[in-house]
Specification:
5 helices, about 130 residues, mainly alpha, about 0% strand, globular
């Protein structure tokens, strides 16, 4: 039960920050820099959010330092994030999943995919860095 709560809270922190940054990116940064540059500029901020949210979640829920516990927390958070993205982004934009994936910039999309892997691993990685 602790992993379920921790993964959900971790997701909520990252999702809330990503939603706020996404609004700023779409309304302000993308018209100024272009979509690719705006998405890439947002990534370092999101990486910082991921690190801070993972660190806070691991401490707040006193998660066991074992790989299965920490990885399950990260994978659950990424699962929630992907579910929310499909439900909200596709619903708001009125796109199919194929249209959404086909319209992603190859570079920014790859960096985003790597960010998801980082998010999944971060609860484990923050524990390893603390040793």
């Amino acid at each position: 039960m602790r992993v379920l709560k921790a993964g959900t809270v971790y997701f909520l922190w990252v999702f809330a920050a990503g939603f706020a940054l996404g609004v700023l990116r779409e309304l302000w940064l993308a018209p100024w820099l272009g979509t690719r540059a705006a998405e890439l500029a947002e990534m370092p901020v999101m990486w910082l959010v991921i690190v801070l949210a993972a660190r806070w979640t691991v401490r707040r829920f006193a998660l066991s330092a074992t790989l299965p516990t920490r990885l399950a927390t990260g994978l659950l958070a990424v699962g929630w994030l992907l579910l929310a993205e499909v439900a909200l982004v596709l619903g708001l934009r009125g796109l199919t999943l194929a249209e959404y994936l086909g319209g992603r910039d190859p570079l920014a999309g790859t960096v985003y995919a790597l960010s998801l892997l980082l998010m999944a691993a971060m609860p484990w990685l923050v524990g390893r860095a603390g040793r």
